[in-house]
Structure formats: structure tokens, C-alpha cells
Amino acid sequence: MNFADLDWRVLDRLRSTFLQEKFGSTGYWQSPRDLAQYHVSFGERIGWKWDAVLEELRDIGWAPPAGVETMIDWGCGSGVAGQRVLKAFPSLRRAAVGDSSPAAVEFALQGLRREHPGIESKAWSGTDASGGLLVISHVWNELDPEQRVQLLQLAGTAAAVLWVEPGTHETSRDLQTVRDHFREAFDVLAPCTHQGPCGLLAAGMERHWCHHFAPPPPEVFVSSDWSRFAVRAGIDLRSVPYSFLCLQRRPAGAAPASDDGWERILGRARISKPYARTLSCGVCGVCDTEVPKRQLPDWFKTFKNGEEPRRLRWIRDGDRATSVEQP
Ligand SMILES: C[S@@+](CC[C@H](N)C(=O)[O-])C[C@H]1O[C@@H](n2cnc3c(N)ncnc32)[C@H](O)[C@@H]1O
Asked: Of 127, 184, 322, 160, whose CA–CA distance to 245 is shortest?
């Protein structure tokens, strides 16, 4: 279906389901039409987050390890996450999709077969993801505590995990805890630049959360359809916050991946007249750095415009940046 054919009776219902977090015991996908409507709108917006994550993985040179040829999209919904991942990693040969909604599984399978005809795809409801790349997207807040434990058990069997969630304080901090839960058995390859404990879980850091902003494709800003969608849905298209994890199982007995020495910028800078303040995370922990407008005007502008790089290394005098290095 086309974006121009949006049905607001469907989208309003889905939106209020997501906002109120009332998912219902039988789920909220009432028909394939619901999934089609979601796929081109809310789902596509989730796709932009995946695009940002997959671009970051490409930048750090990550791809599924040799021998990992199966992707499992758990809680697939309309299948947007799995489709993005398959497009990014041509080494994947097989796809499996699972969801508590049979309608979602069917819709996602049809999409996979249409968009990736060369990939062997099937429905999946297993509890063992051994040897596979497990993809999880926007499902955590729909799970009760027991289901969360089951999902973590499943993730613990995978060869690698790509996990994207909204960039809310609560869910991002949950993902930080998940990260530390897995860091003995897995290398955390992104967003973290180090394998130590999550610096944002340290005492005193409770008000911060590990989140980032995905840029929508430029054409979105000149699309009257998207602009109408944004107004009607009450969404700011410039601000697409997300949190994520890329985990790769560490071979038995292997040392953790080495720290890469960079700092990952978290969230958006706080801007005042004389400086920007950025939060970044690296091997030394989480640092709050002042970027003075007078000494570093270009960097001040970059942060003011929300165009921050993902990774950098501040050279500091105390907590004030004097210069910067980039990968
Ligand atoms: C917000 S949608 C996200 C769909 C898709 N992953 C995406 O990113 O667009 C959450 C999906 O999780 C599914 N879900 C909820 N609880 C589940 C469970 N216990 N097991 C499997 N899927 C579940 C829902 O049916 C729904 O399709």
C-alpha cells in the first residue's frame, strides 16, 4: 500500500495502544490491514532507527561473524527490522520470523519473500537461537517479567544479537542492564566502545540514559504526506530517539574484545550561550564535557545543530574540551 492511503482509524488505535501500553491479552493486530498501515508509517520510522544502527555497525566494521547465516526476527510485527538487517548483510542466507500474532508472522513472511526472494524464510517459534543472528525491535515494553526472562534466555543462546528499542529513559536503562547481564559471555560491539561495566549504571548516573537520534531520510522533510502524518500523529520527525545493543558471542576462553579508545556521544548536547555540554561514554566512564563556543566554534555549531558525530575523543583540560580526534 502507499503512504498516501493511510487509514487514521487504524493508526489512531495503534498509536493509543502504544502510548497507553495497553497491548491486550490477544494483541492488537486485528487484520493484515493493520500491519500494512503500520509498516509504511510507524514501522518505517522504526526502519530509520535501524538504518542508523546498521550504518554505525558498518562504520565500525561489524558484520555477522563467519558461519552466521540465519537471522531470527523475534517479535517481528510487520517485519521492518528483519528486512533492514537482511539488506545490510548479504551474507545472511536464511530468515526466520516469530511473533505472538500469527497475522504478524504471515505479513512479515510475505514481505520477506517479496523483498528478499533469494532468502529462505520461515515462521519460527523456537527457544534456541544457536548459531543465529537474533534481531529484536521495539518489543521489550510489551513483555511481562516472565516473558522478559524468556527473551533473555533466548538471546543468551544466539551467536549475535542486534536489539533496537525506543530511546526512552526507562527502556534505554533496561537495555543498559541487559548489556551488563551479557557482557561476560558476549562482546558489546556497539554502542559501547569498551567492555567494562556500563558507566551509566554507576551511582549518581540515574538521570541519564544511553540513547541516540536517528536522522530521517532527507526526502521525508519535503514530503507533504510525512508532514501531515507528523502533525496528526503528534510526532516530531526531526527527533527519532532510540537505544540499541550489538552483542557478539565471545568464543569460549577468548579475552574480551579490546576497548577501541573512542568515546560514544550520548543523547543531544545541552546548549547555552558560551558553550555546549556533551555526555560521552568510553573506557574511563561517562564524561560531561564543556565545548566552549569561542575556542571550538565549529564544534559548538555542530552540537548546536544536532549533527554530533557518534564517536570521537576529546582532548580536555579538566572538563573543558581543547580539541578533538575522530576515527
Ligand atoms: C511494536 S511491535 C514491533 C514490531 C517490529 N519488531 C518492529 O520493530 O516494527 C511489537 C511486536 O511484538 C509482538 N509481541 C508482543 N509480545 C510478544 C511475545 N510474548 N512473543 C512474541 N512476540 C510478541 C507483537 O505482536 C508485535 O508484533
From this structure: 160
Least confident among 38-47, 127-136, 255-264: 255-264
Band the pLDDT of 24: cuts 50, 70, 90.
confident
* Residue showing cell 490477544: 26
Atom of ligand 1 nearest to the CA of 147: 19
Distances (CA, A) of 52 to 67, 154, 191, 242, 327: 25, 25, 11, 10, 17
Please give the distance of CA 310 from its chain centroid, rounded to a whole number. Answer: 14
User: Can you tell me the mean pLDDT for 175-200?
Assistant: 96
Q: Pick from 119, 92, 97: which is nearest to 109 by CA? A: 97
d(CA 58, CA 71): 17
Threshold 0.90, pTM exceeds: yes
Ligand 1 atom 17: the closest Cα is on which residue? 100
Q: Which of 101, 113, 81, 84 is nearest to 34 (CA)?
A: 101
For 167-185, the DSSP string reads --HHHHHHHHHHHHHHTTT
Res 1 pLDDT > 80: no
Q: Residue 99: CB within 6 Å of ligand 1?
A: yes
What's residue 149's pLDDT?
98
Instruction: Write the pLDDT tens digit of every residue in 271-327.
Output: 999 999 999 999 889 999 999 999 999 999 999 999 999 999 999 999 999 999 999
Is the beta carbon of 167 within 6 A of some atom in ligand 1? no
Ligand 1 centroid to 116 CA: how many Å?
21
- Say if residues 191 and 264 touch (Cβ distance below 8 Å): yes
11's CB contacts (< 8 A; 6+ apart) are 37, 38, 41, 42, 232, 233
Domains and CATH numbers, the chain: 3-249 (3.40.50.150), 263-325 (no CATH)
Is residue 85 within 6 Å of ligand 1 at its C-beta?
no
Q: Is 21 left (phi over 0), alpha (psi -120 to 50) or beta?
A: left
